[in-house]
Amino acid sequence: MSGYTRLVLTGRSLVAIGAVTDLARALLPAVVVLEDVDLVAEERSLGPASSPVLFDLLDAMDGAAPDADLLFLLTTNRADLLEPALAARPGRVDVAVEIALPDAPARERLMSLYGQDVPLALTPEDVNVAIERTDGTTASFLKELIRRSVLESLHEDPALTAVTGTHLTRALDDLLDAAQAVTRTLLGVGVDPADLPAGGVLQAGPVPGAMMAYRRQVMARRMGHFRG
């Protein structure tokens, strides 16, 4: 989307949705991206009080002129928790796209992406074995795998001359070890959002209170039309 101003809100910055939307209207054409929108747009019946940011978001999405070239892009791991006034009201969300777990080719590309600034010295066999062993994992898991591989290399040589297949195997063995079940959950591995109750809290297992999911939902609201 060349030519579009992109404004990204995540974490605490989500509270600025009103001001950022005003800025986006002044910079049309524009895209407003809200990462993990469930943090501020949880269904009102799930808590004692609604987030004031939710109403700011609804006002922002409804307040643009019909011909404004403005796109809202919302991402979430817990679409099931979203306020129906946002997720289920006709016309408020035009398109919803589910991004599944990465398949083998995608995992290979992700490893290459996360390792692009790392002195990787991996053979094709090293990569193939890692791809096979990481079936069912997330992008976050693969990013952590590269990070731990770097730490394994640094443990041997602080100069970080190369990250080899041996380092990668050690890091993967550690992440897949039974003792790392909590870590894998935090990285979104092995937890289906359909199995989580309202509120996102795991009721059993080693990580009470953790809200984890592996599916990523992307929703878009189009204000106006694409140019060109």
Q: Can you walk me through this structure?
A:
The protein is α/β, with parallel strands linked by helices and 228 residues long. It folds into two domains: 5-93 and 215-223, Rossmann fold (3-Layer(aba) Sandwich), CATH 3.40.50.300; 104-186, Helicase, Ruva Protein, domain 3. The chain is 36% helix and 15% strand. It is built from eight helices and seven strands, in the order βαβαβαβαβααβααβ. The chain has helices at 17-26, 52-63, 84-87, 104-114, 124-133, 139-156, 165-176, 181-186, and strands at 5-9, 30-34, 70-76, 95-99, 120-121, 163-164, 216-223. The strands form two sheets. It has a five-stranded mixed sheet, covered by helices on one side. A two-stranded parallel sheet has the order 5-6. Strand 1 (5-9), helix 1 (17-26) and strand 2 (30-34) form a beta-alpha-beta unit. Helix 1 (17-26) packs parallel to helix 2 (52-63) and helix 4 crosses helix 5 (124-133). The longest helix has 18 residues, at 139-156. The protein is elongated, with a radius of gyration of 21 Å. The N and C termini lie close together (11 Å). Mean pLDDT is 80; it is low at 198-216 and 223-228.
